[in-house]
Amino acid sequence: MTRVKICGLTSERDVLTAARLGAWACGFVLSESPRRVGVSHAAELTPLTGSALAVAVVTTEDAEWIAAALADGGFGAVQLCAGADGPTVADVRAAAQERALRPLVIAAQGTTDASSADLLLDSRTKEAYGGTGRTLDWPALAAQHLPRERLVLAGGLRPANADLAIKLLRPRVVDASSGVERAPGIKDPRLLNAFFGAVAGADFSGGASA
């Protein structure tokens, strides 16, 4: 079954809704973004995720800062979005281990050692490492040899296109943010419901990864 990560969460209501709908993970952006939350605010929200994984979403912060944020915010995972501009997976894991933490790591394509983590595919621009609302070229990606068992697909996913993305790429995780919002950082419950329904529909019709 395809797992769902809802990213860019900023409010108690939206975290609880995502968890209730069965999110595998809830993402909290700690870097500069319209969806940014401070570590102290995130620490108030992460306990509401229930069985869902709380993910710290970061860009160019150094490994030591990230490890401190993981500890202080109550996170079980970290998403490195900056590729070669950000820290390596190894450095983040080493800094986290010094704090007795072993987070799941999701790393963007372009990260030096991304092959040692779950692989994030997201659309980016000169202004932003993610959260752009733009879709990737899924047919072109489908022709590549991608590690689908550890693939996290983001970039403009919404209820209307989740089915196609899953059937073409068979990712382990689909990651939605802007496509389930009424405004940056404010999720729309109807769109969240529709997105989870679209993912379940794709799985039912044979699009899920093994």
Quick description:
With 210 residues, this protein is an alpha/beta fold.
CATH architecture: Alpha-Beta Barrel
> What oligomeric state do the depicted chains represent?
single chain
Can you count the helices? 7
What is the topology, as strand order, of the major beta sheet?
Answer: 1-2-3-4-5-6-7-8
N-C termini distance: 8 Å
What pattern of helices and strands is seen along the backbone?
Answer: EHEHEHEHEEHEHEEEH
Average pLDDT, rounded to a whole number, is: 94
Largest sheet: 8 strands, parallel, barrel
Structural class: alpha/beta
User: Radius of gyration in whole Å, from Cα?
Assistant: 16 Å
List keywords for this structure.
single chain, 210 residues, alpha/beta, TIM Barrel, eight-stranded parallel beta barrel, 19% strand
Model description:
By secondary structure, the protein is α/β, with parallel strands linked by helices. It has a single domain, classed as Aldolase class I (TIM Barrel, Alpha-Beta Barrel). Helix content is 31%, strand content 19%. The chain contains 7 helices and 10 strands. The strands form 2 sheets. An 8-stranded parallel beta barrel has the order 1-2-3-4-5-6-7-8, surrounded by 4 helices. Helix 3 links the parallel strand 3 and strand 4. The longest helix is centred in the last third of the chain and has 16 residues. The termini are close together. The mean pLDDT is 94.
